[in-house]
Amino acid sequence: MKEGYEYTPAGQVSRTIDGNGNAVQYRYNSLGKVSERIDQLGDTETFRYDEEGNLSLHIDRDGRQLQRACNVFGQPVYEKASDAEGKHTNISTWHYDSLGRVTRAVCDGKSYEYIYDAYGNLKEKRSNGKRLVSYTHDRAGQITEIRDPAGVSTRYEYDILGRRSRIFNDDGLEVRYGYDALNRIRHIRYGNGVETAYTYDGDGNIRTLETRAGENVLLSFAYRYDGNGNRTAKTGMQATLGGITTGNNALELSYAYDVRGQLLEERRNGASVCYAYDKAGNRIRKTDVQGEIRYLYNEKNQLIAEESPVDRKQFSYDRQGGIIEEKNAAGIRLFSYNSRRQQTRVETETGSVQENRYDAEGLRFELLENGRRTSFVYHDGELLQEEGREEQGTSYHLGAGMEAFRRGQELSYYHRDEQLSTVFVTDGHRNVQNSYQYDAFGMSLGTTEKLNNRIRYTGQQYDELTEQYYLRARYYNPVAGRFMQEDVYQGDGLNLYAYCGNNPVVYDDPSGYKRKACPPQGKISESVDESGTSSVAKPNHGQGFSSKGYNPKPGERTRDQRL
Question: Is 21 left (phi over 0), alpha (psi -120 to 50) or beta?
Answer without folding.
Answer: left
